[in-house]
Structures are given as C-alpha cells and as structure tokens.
Amino acid sequence: MHTRLAVVVALFTLCQAITEEETDNFGTTGMPEQNTGIVGTVSVTDNGDTWLFESNGVPDHDTATWPWPGVNPNSIEAKANSYNLPKNPTVAESPSCLPGGPIGMAVNGVMMFNPWNAFDENAVEGDTAEIFDQCDGHPDERGTYHYHKMPASCLFEDVEGEASPLIGVAFDGFAIYGPNDENGTRLTSDDLDECHGRYNSKGVYQYHTTTDFPYILGCYKGTPVASQPPGGKCYFASDANEDGNISDEVVVTTLASTTSSAYIVSPSLFLCIIIFLNQLLALRI
Ligand SMILES: *[C@@H]1O[C@H](CO)[C@@H](O)[C@H](O)[C@H]1NC(C)=O
Ligand SMILES: *[C@@H]1O[C@H](CO)[C@@H](O)[C@H](O)[C@H]1NC(C)=O
C-alpha cells in the first residue's frame, strides 16, 4: 500500500512542469546591479500544489547605463514580484493571449515580456527593433527590467549540441527552456506550436526560447494567472504579420481575471504517467 502511494507521489513529481530539482536553477549571482546598487533576488517556495516564485526583478548581471539618453529614458527599479503557479499545470482547451508587461519570470528573477513594443510592433527585429543592453534587457516606464528576446548572453549557457537548461517559468506554470531540445538539437519556431512550445518525452508541455519570432512565448498554452488588470492589450503571435507586427485589424482582447485552479489530473499529466509506466514496463522493473 505504502509502495503504491510512493509510486503515485513519484509519478506526480516526475510529471511536474518544473521539478523540485529544477527549482535549484532559480538563483542570482549576487552581483549588485550597476545603476541601483541593488542585488537581484529570487526564490521558489513549495506551497503544496503550487510553487511560489518571488523576486525583486533586478538583474544579477551587467546592464547598460539606464536611463540611456536618447535611447531609453527609463530606470531600473526593484519590485515585489510574486507568482503562485501550479506544479502540474493543465493545457487549456484554447490558448490565451499575451498581455503587455510580465508574462514569465526568468531563473534570475527578471521579467519576460511578449515580442511587441507599446505600438504593437516587433520590439526585437526589423525597423522597430528596440535597443537592449549587452545582456538582452532594458527597463520599461514602470522601472521593470525585462527581456523580449532570447536572453542568451548572460542568463544561461547556450552550448551547441547540448540540452538547454530550464531558463524560466511562464505565468501559466509551464517551464521555459533554452533553444536546444533534450538531445541538443537546435530548435526554431517551426519546431514549436503557436504558443512556442511542445511536449517533451515525458509528455509534459514546455516552452522554448529561440532566436526567431516570437522569441520566448507566442501565447499561453495553459491558464495564466492574471498578470495585469483586465482591459489591457492582449495578443497571440499568430495575429502578427511577416515582420512580427500586430496588424491593425486585430481586435484587442481583454484579459479575463483568472486564478489557477488546475490541480486535477490533467490530460498531459495522464499522458506523462502513461509514458512513465510504459518505460517502467520496458525496463521490466
Ligand atoms: C531524443 O532522442 C531519443 C532517442 O533517440 C528519442 O526517443 C527522443 O524522442 C528524442 N527527443 C526529441 C525531443 O527529439
Ligand atoms: C511593421 O511596422 C513597421 C513600423 O511601423 C513598418 O515599418 C513595417 O513596414 C511593418 N511591417 C509590416 C509587414 O506591416
């Protein structure tokens, strides 16, 4: 009886979007940010069915001098970021749009944003590309330092031919990995779905950051915790044209205020358990 319970617990743990072991990826270098002198903080707390992710959002790596005259008038500020996200998130019946502002937290506590600027144009490439510092980030008008593009320079080691590490969590609870899959194969958006993710070999959904549009996320595959008040702009990467701009005709969707309630055995969790049992049987344990 106890053994069976232990197996069930083990299965739930194995099938988590972010495993206990992977929560160790969340941490900062302890380097004071050069403009503010503030040290970046990030922590993950086990809350039972959820992981609580908290950070002050201050980068733990080199930055430019912000404000940068003639480029960006904003300064970096410390925030009280707090996101309680399901350990076993469910793939939603239909994906959700990405609001402006934070859509995920990188493992160093820095916020991740969607691919667009305030005018719904591609913030990363083309005529409307914004200027980022040597570590791929910049602050917005609220003082939130953030990444729009693949944050490869300072956040994680992008090693050719090797599996990429977990680099963050999206605000639906699903993990965000670097651009290489578990066999070290380089991915582009063509390998991923419209939300910029796919199922791993455990049957668990995960996002990947890539160098091509939409760079980090294209939509939420699961149910996002509300990250901004309803009424803001909210888009799917599939609404963008070939330059990555949102075309004028797209209707702005208001964000429903959602809470994470996905603690039941989801189809993806079920799939993960089947895959795991299948592997166990193959090993004849
Ligand atoms: C990685 O390689 C293994 C063994 O060849 C394969 O079963 C698995 O599907 C591959 N994973 C991906 C994501 O391609
Ligand atoms: C994207 O927006 C920029 C800036 O408005 C514009 O120069 C470019 O032509 C747009 N691309 C498309 C395909 O609409």
UniProtKB/TrEMBL annotation:
Q: Does the keyword Transmembrane helix apply?
A: yes
This protein is called YHYH domain-containing protein
Q: Which UniProt keywords apply?
A: Membrane, Signal, Transmembrane, Transmembrane helix
Organism, by scientific name, is Holothuria leucospilota (Black long sea cucumber)
InterPro entries linked: YHYH_dom
Keyword Transmembrane helix in annotation: yes
Signal sequence annotation = 1-17
Q: Where are the transmembrane segments?
A: 262-283
Could you read off the lineage of the organism from its UniProt record?
Eukaryota, Metazoa, Echinodermata, Eleutherozoa, Echinozoa
Q: Which residues form the YHYH domain?
A: 82-180
Top-level taxon in the UniProt lineage: Eukaryota
One of its Pfam families is YHYH
